[in-house]
Specification:
By secondary structure, the chain is an all-alpha fold. It is 83% helix and 0% strand. The protein is built from 18 helices and no strands. The longest helix has 52 residues, at 137-188. Residues 414-422 have low confidence and may be disordered. InterPro entries: MFS, MFS_trans_sf.
Length: 422
């Protein structure tokens, strides 16, 4: 806790932290409230709710080659600021689109807003790397993990409450206000020029298609050049498998095995159990980063979560399942916080955006492949228990792989920090 107090004495970090919080809050409230609005208004057409979820994820595949390049070549503070400002403007347009009731236009606005928001995180991470000391990276990662766990616990519930009290127009208005608050906080940040423009000033007209593709390729070559970094980022492919599996597996085991009649009610408790596990695990992981090495925490987290995910498939009662899932969630922050604290210390500042730009599409690819695999194999080929064995087994496999690989590649750290990329 002492570390948390110390890091908040940095005014730039404090503003960035709350800007990230409010920006993410706006995304959660708007998307969740709009999904429930569609389910209420078009109860016989659930496809609309599915399309809404797609409008949040698909833009990643449309802009992934741009986000990292812009975060490294343009002013990072301006990128983060304009992401929030444009998102607020698009939220106002969304209000008008909802009044008109023209669904294609509504989905188009949701797509645009989601695409704009994808540029925020790489730029914000690049700024953080420039305004924090290396020993504060893991503390910042721990705080971000705790915020994410709070969203798991209360985000959807808060969005539903706002929707119930203020309707869809009130929810989108709150959405707009959160983006405006985030933009103001970003605007007030004092960010050194070297953190904003690590590669020197560029103009949009300088970023031709060939320049962007060359820069994007440079990010890929940078990752491949450094085995430690490549190993860590390769792990995100497996995390995408876990995200894809866990987006449907808990509901499946409740509906088809443990609580066929009351699975909807228990799904709420499932979110509480998982979110509470991640929140408590975040606090524990933040303290352990001061006592253990990053690769030890990553391996421990993977082994704990993988073991309990497999164990959860043997649960015979709903309450037993919720308890085991709680312990599975405890291990995940060890992995997330360790990687979040480690990567900024081994990535050259002027390459941070392009490296971050590879993570989201990699996870999205593995997540989509996993969902496609589940759609084809369950329940015709695989039982629900087998799905848990596969996902848990993936984590255990990566944990064993990292046990041998990460210590061997740690010597690359100094090479990465000293590398010069033109």
């Amino acid at each position: 806790m002492k570390k948390f107090k110390e890091i908040f004495r940095n005014p730039t970090f404090t503003k960035l932290f709350f800007a990230n919080f409010t920006s993410h809050l706006g995304s959660v409230i708007g998307l969740t409230a709009f999904m429930f609005y569609l389910l209420d208004r078009f109860s016989e057409q659930p496809v609309y709710a599915t399309i809404t979820e797609m409008m949040y994820s698909i833009p990643t595949l449309a802009v992934f080659f741009l986000v990292g390049v812009l975060a490294d070549r343009m002013d990072r503070k301006n990128i983060a600021y304009y992401c929030d400002t444009i998102s607020a403007f698009l939220s106002v347009i969304l209000l008008g689109a909802i009044v008109l009731g023209w669904m294609p236009f509504i989905f188009f606005v949701l797509f645009l807003r989601s695409a704009v928001q994808k540029f925020f995180f790489p730029a914000e991470q690049g700024i953080l790397q420039g305004v924090l000391d290396k020993e504060d990276y893991s503390t910042a990662a721990g705080l971000n993990q705790m915020v994410m766990s709070l969203f798991m616990l209360f985000g959807n519930g808060l969005a539903i409450l706002i929707y119930w009290l203020a309707g869809i127009y009130g929810a989108v208005l709150v959405d707009t206000i959160t983006f405006i608050i985030s933009a103001v906080l970003i605007k007030k940040c004092h960010v050194p020029v070297e953190a904003r423009l690590p590669n020197g000033p560029h103009k949009l007209k300088d970023l031709s298609f060939s320049f962007i593709m060359k820069d994007f390729k440079l990010g890929m070559l940078y990752i491949f050049k450094h085995k430690l970094l490549m190993s860590l980022i390769g792990g995100f492919f497996v995390f995408g498998v876990v995200n894809g599996g866990f987006s449907v597996m808990p509901i499946f085991i409740l509906k088809y095995k443990l609580a066929p009649q009351t699975y909807e009610e228990y799904s709420i408790l499932l979110g509480v159990a998982f979110g509470a596990g991640v929140l408590i695990g975040s606090v524990i992981a933040s303290m352990l980063t001061q006592k253990f090495k990053f690769h030890q925490l990553i391996v421990a987290g993977l082994m704990i979560s993988g073991s309990f995910i497999i164990l959860s498939s043997f649960a015979t009662t709903t309450w037993m399942f919720l308890g085991v899932i709680f312990f599975a969630a405890l291990g995940l922050p060890l992995v997330n916080i360790a990687i979040g604290g480690w990567m900024p210390s081994i990535i050259e500042p002027k390459m941070m955006g392009r490296v971050q730009g590879w993570i989201s599409p990699l996870m999205m690819l593995s997540q989509s492949l996993t969902l496609g695999f589940i759609a084809l194999s369950f329940p015709a080929i695989l039982s629900i228990e087998m799905l848990y064995w596969i996902v848990g087994g993936c984590l255990l496999f990566v944990g064993i792989f990292y046990t041998f690989i990460l210590p061997k590649f740690m010597k690359d750290t100094e090479g990465i920090e000293a590398a010069a990329v033109s």
